Amino acid sequence: MTHSRTVELEGHIIDSGMLQQAMGLVMDLEGNFDIEQFDVGTHKEAESYCRMDVMADDEATLQEILHELHQIGANLTDPVDAELVAAPADQVVPTGFYSTTNHPTQVRYEGQWVDVENMEMDCAIVVEDGDSPRAYTKVLNAIEEGDLVVTDEAGIRVDPPERPRDNSGPFGFMQGGVSSERPSESLIRQVADALEQTKEDGGNVLVVAGPAVIHAGAGDDLARLVREGYIDMLSAGNGFATHDIERGLYGTSLGMDMETMEHPRKGHKHHIYTISEVIRAGGISEAVDEGLIKSGVMYECIQNDVSYVLAGSIRDDGPLPETITDAVEAQNAIREQAHEADMVLMLSTLLHSVAVGNCLPSTTKVVCVDINPATVTQLLDRGSSQAIGMVTDIGTFVPSLADKVLDDA
Amino acid sequence: MTHSRTVELEGHIIDSGMLQQAMGLVMDLEGNFDIEQFDVGTHKEAESYCRMDVMADDEATLQEILHELHQIGANLTDPVDAELVAAPADQVVPTGFYSTTNHPTQVRYEGQWVDVENMEMDCAIVVEDGDSPRAYTKVLNAIEEGDLVVTDEAGIRVDPPERPRDNSGPFGFMQGGVSSERPSESLIRQVADALEQTKEDGGNVLVVAGPAVIHAGAGDDLARLVREGYIDMLSAGNGFATHDIERGLYGTSLGMDMETMEHPRKGHKHHIYTISEVIRAGGISEAVDEGLIKSGVMYECIQNDVSYVLAGSIRDDGPLPETITDAVEAQNAIREQAHEADMVLMLSTLLHSVAVGNCLPSTTKVVCVDINPATVTQLLDRGSSQAIGMVTDIGTFVPSLADKVLDDA
Amino acid sequence: MTHSRTVELEGHIIDSGMLQQAMGLVMDLEGNFDIEQFDVGTHKEAESYCRMDVMADDEATLQEILHELHQIGANLTDPVDAELVAAPADQVVPTGFYSTTNHPTQVRYEGQWVDVENMEMDCAIVVEDGDSPRAYTKVLNAIEEGDLVVTDEAGIRVDPPERPRDNSGPFGFMQGGVSSERPSESLIRQVADALEQTKEDGGNVLVVAGPAVIHAGAGDDLARLVREGYIDMLSAGNGFATHDIERGLYGTSLGMDMETMEHPRKGHKHHIYTISEVIRAGGISEAVDEGLIKSGVMYECIQNDVSYVLAGSIRDDGPLPETITDAVEAQNAIREQAHEADMVLMLSTLLHSVAVGNCLPSTTKVVCVDINPATVTQLLDRGSSQAIGMVTDIGTFVPSLADKVLDDA
Amino acid sequence: MTHSRTVELEGHIIDSGMLQQAMGLVMDLEGNFDIEQFDVGTHKEAESYCRMDVMADDEATLQEILHELHQIGANLTDPVDAELVAAPADQVVPTGFYSTTNHPTQVRYEGQWVDVENMEMDCAIVVEDGDSPRAYTKVLNAIEEGDLVVTDEAGIRVDPPERPRDNSGPFGFMQGGVSSERPSESLIRQVADALEQTKEDGGNVLVVAGPAVIHAGAGDDLARLVREGYIDMLSAGNGFATHDIERGLYGTSLGMDMETMEHPRKGHKHHIYTISEVIRAGGISEAVDEGLIKSGVMYECIQNDVSYVLAGSIRDDGPLPETITDAVEAQNAIREQAHEADMVLMLSTLLHSVAVGNCLPSTTKVVCVDINPATVTQLLDRGSSQAIGMVTDIGTFVPSLADKVLDDA
């Protein structure tokens, strides 16, 4: 074990689990450590400090360990500038490129720590030099030949948000994981409070919605929340928008009458015809203008200047003219929404929620609601430390949330 | 194919699917049929009539086919008396005993059709002769040596309830199976209407409840329904009752504080201590009397003379003194409840719902609510033609149901 | 009820349930019927014939009923030519367009019944006149201004495949729906037989595969089936292909070592780097040529000229150069695969399986395997009468299938 | 904050997470701490030591905190004897009784640390004094008036097993939780190795099996494992045993033919008749003797002196004579099995697995297999640190396990 470097950890490193994690991964990766200094916070407000020597049998292993330690916030004591290598071609990263976490990150450039903009996980970091150097994330697809891409593990600082110590904040309450055996009404109350708080603070609320929202009869209540100004952006697919519009046109959603719950058998024809009619009108906005669409979530979005992204999918009918059918373009549009959002409500859609979640920094508040526990777990696993998961019925969740928020208003 | 018998089917045999089923099973069992007469109901109110010869290669197969035809309501044209054989020993049925469906059934005894009492599936039928002969179901366990048990397939008539032709009734709306993508609020409205109607008609409402009802925060709302007279009987387990009482005593349910949703770590100790304290008092009723239990579902049951059965299970702690730990005794108590019920609400419990469902005739209204679609499907498959399944969150379902029912009152 | 038309049904209309369905939907849609002639097949090989007058209060309802009756194979006795209306604009269907089922269909054009080509559900039918008139399906997206689109319900004949009467065929065995409580090994044996039979008959086998196939360790076995010539086409996404290639390059799949099951923490970086390297090489085929990719499913596809479609999605990283990112283009590529397939294996992917399933006629054999029963149910509900669903572990299913098929060879 | 006590933690307290947990719960319970001494293990083999003062505003809170600290292994520095209070009545615990974890535990009695026998969670500890004092767990039900029950938190030492540091052992591989996206064949290989190792070491293997094992076609393979001596005990219910015997008698399992997968419609009658015949014979063992039962799991258990417990349930038919219908008696029988087991295989049964799991100390190896992830999660949450969960198909798992184990033999 001749290869070694010194790292330091600071903050609530014991009770946040950071120290345990650091030791664990050194050992998992077959390294070793030697603690040089350890100042323990002797009471609960006090921060701790730990400096340790990390060792490995070979340089490759050491680099791997150091990379992992970075990701959880253990930084080198002897910071050097980040290594920059020009991308060899468009959409090609240099060997050993640094792949981001979704936590706030800085890179060291000419002796200065520069904040990385638009944090998002699994990206490369590109540095733009000049008088005021900038650093930002780029997805693989956006890499251009010659981009200065950060490689290796040196000169990078990651600062994972610490879990709130008390349970008082609205987003403190889901620390015990996901469960359907929880008092749903109390949880919805807390989501309502967080939503109101976000709006009071001038924040942006993004709703990610699947077609089940409409099928489950929650369309009107979501429309109310849009109309009353609680929703700033909508991220959905062609299916959601079509079901919502179909419901306005025919009172059906993929063929089920929303009042009587009967299936007029021409259901799917309604679906196709709805799309056809919107295409004829020239788009959703034009269909609203000409009076074809008179109610619903999409209607309220247009009337209230709520921006929306409809991302295409290979299972779409149609699609509607506004649907972005190219996956890369759609991701870019979703990325923009994600970066502007302060709070995100993910309502019964795995595909769109994953797409949005992939672009979110770990500091954004996320509420994820689905009747399928596997969906909720998969979304929460992606690593927002401010995420709430609820396994509940979207058809009772949205009405209850709208009632609570609008009663408070 | 020399072995044959003639059967007849009457009623809405085409649109109810009975004729299709009959033909299907003859063919599945490698028999054949020859239709002798077929009078089709030429419009939707008209009943049809079909008489057909059923054939098989050997007598055993023919008997098997006839047995199956019976179960769906195809009866022999040349009725003979049912064959009665004395049970050879306690809990032992004669060879070839007739195993019941859960549909209304008659047996022919000395030339008369006698209604079978207490219909329930997978039972034997015992005939008591005398001046006014009676026939009733007996589970295997209750068979006594010498009981006259119906065997073979002759002399038995089954009359499966026909599916309602229109969708207007409260129990017509789930004919398309189980789905979580349905307008929950509308469905709950219909369940509320059916509950009110049952009470108006003087019927008995049985609630089958699992511990999740309490965990999910729905205990108060279920207690309100009991207090206001909408529930006549409760079927649950030791877990449900203990969580409900624990919540009254400590504000926790298996250790989770129902207001703050924090887990005081002594949770499970509360659970054991709750049981211990009720044992000390001498029982739930005594604990209510001495003021230990002041609220909750069990409290309201005792205050409002709502009878309850707490059935034991091998995963119970304690259990509470009222728990019936013997499975056979518990089944008998459940059987009595099931036979008295006109409407059954099954709330988030597979074990207890299966136990109750096993004892229900196919004419009882059943509403089954669970967040797990597999549970709902499994319960509905057991064959009530008047069953409604809802895949939704029990923690929002019960409050919403209570609000609707009590607002109407 | 003054509006009426006469329809006829032929074949095994009782035991296939067609007659029941027909009567049911007339009544569901508030119509009435009067049976004029009914010749019942008096034994199990004999077909039946039914002619009935269908009535409704108004013409609109009658048309709706007739449309529905068509879809299940009840055709008008007095066939007229199908009504053709020119599409008013690109991607816009005329009012009242006929929306297809996935069953074999004919349209009547100038007194002749013309088979509709490329049957697929939820499409319009376009007729091309001329000396030998043709009719084929078009999705909304492909409709061009002036296309002669079939509207209304007249002049169309639908012929739903009848369920096999006996259980002897390989695809007869799932008639009882989906269940995880079935003898898996016997079912896999039957899938193996069907696969071998399809190849013997010169048919094409399409595999639709999700990334879980690789994660679950079944990549090698799927690769064996490709190498040995049992798979003709592959339909997947960027994720599947990347995981498969990553496994070859690094022995990991999204970061999990497939032998030791440890998570080298740089996992996700491997994923991005894999894509980057394939982009650098110029594509998968080029990466095989230059020796970068040496094994795996994609490798075998290229070495054995198995055509593949990689459809993009908004949750993709990268993507790989071969990925079709435009949803409409991807659907077209998938449609072509679907039309050429005689047997389809859907392995652990909902998104891609729905996309493929949307394009399949009801006569194609489909086997759908997933550990989540909801996925299997959703796919089977789409209406292939030759579909088999298995709720099982893809990580044991593919190895077991490969063993059986290759042992037989 | 005037109330305080001093506790100490020893061992791999950082990387095992014990220190983090300790600090966390002090803060969660609104206490505070002051670290007096902290000797950190400076390399990965070195143990750490921490002594800290724990403070709270009132004595009750302090006691609560100390209780919780105990449970994770933080012990008082100034040990006193455990407080013993006589139980006031049968099945009634004294106020403040100590409720056990499932970890190895000692109580201090007259200055000596006495190991608590038969560790099991949620029990009381009873001390028997005399020359060689003993301490053992008692469930509430077994408490007798006058039993000396440990109360409060002092004088008790808990020693939770530390998680293995490396991944090399057979039970190290599931530390990342439950997932269906794992290489199943490799996992089964590891379970096989663990099973063989347990037998080599002279350990006892307990199988807990649900009826799905038989339905899924895995009965023969489980029977082989019994016959070849790999299974020492069986814990199941009436359903499992009846399905297994029915399969031997009729080739069906609840009515499904296991070879042809057809449902002979008399299925459920077979089930009842099977029970009736076993009752007639006088029991399973007698039915084997008289040649009625000739194969299957129960047959092999009897032929190979494998002891079994059949626990009754309220959903049972019959039940079979050997079924223990009283839940408390059944728990006692299960408890005995659990205490003798060194390795437990839980196969597709939630009810019986929970019942067994409740009685297991945290040092027993547990493998839990189910196709439903919720079942696996629920069982692993109960706290064995040596538990493996697999979400897979029991119908392919058991055959694959049997093949691997018996091939190795």
Query: Could you state the oligomeric state of the chains shown?
Result: homotetramer
Shape of chain A: globular
CATH class of the largest domain in chain A: Alpha Beta
The number of distinct helices of chain A, counting runs of at least 4 residues, comes to: 13
Brief write-up:
Chain A is built from 13 helices and 19 strands. By secondary structure, chain A is of the alpha/beta class.
Q: How would you portray this structure in words?
A:
Chains A, B, C, D: Its cofactor is NAD(+). Chains A, B, C, D: Belongs to the AgrE/ArgZ ornithine cyclodeaminase family. Chains A, B, C, D: Residues 104-188 form the Arginine dihydrolase ArgZ/ArgE-like C-terminal first subdomain domain. Chains A, B, C, D: InterPro entries: ArgZ/ArgE-like (IPR005239), ArgZ/ArgE-like_C_1st (IPR048964), ArgZ/ArgE-like_C_2nd (IPR048963), LOR/SDH_bifunc_enz_cons_dom (IPR007545). The structure is a homotetramer of 409-residue chains. Chain A has three domains: 1-77, 2-Layer Sandwich (Alpha-Beta Plaits); 79-162, conserved putative lor/sdh protein from methanococcus maripaludis s2 fold (Beta Barrel), CATH 2.40.420; 170-408, putative lor/sdh protein like domains (Rossmann fold, 3-Layer(aba) Sandwich). Chain A contains 13 helices and 19 strands. The first copy, chain A, has helices spanning 18-28, 59-71, 184-200, 212-215, 219-227, 238-250, 267-281, 284-289, 297-303, 327-340, 350-357, 373-380, 394-408; strands at residues 3-11, 32-39, 48-56, 75-76, 83-86, 105-109, 112-117, 124-128, 134-138, 148-151, 156-158, 205-209, 233-237, 252-253, 256-257, 307-311, 343-347, 365-370, 387-391. In chain A, strand 17, helix 11 (350-357) and strand 18 (365-370) form a beta-alpha-beta unit. The first copy, chain A, is globular, with a radius of gyration of 24 Å. Chains in contact: A-B, A-C, A-D, B-C, B-D, C-D. The B-C interface holds B 14-17, 19-20, 23-24, 26-28, 32-35, 38, 40-44, 165-167, 373-374 and C 14-17, 19-20, 23-24, 26-28, 32-36, 38, 40-44, 165-167, 373-374.
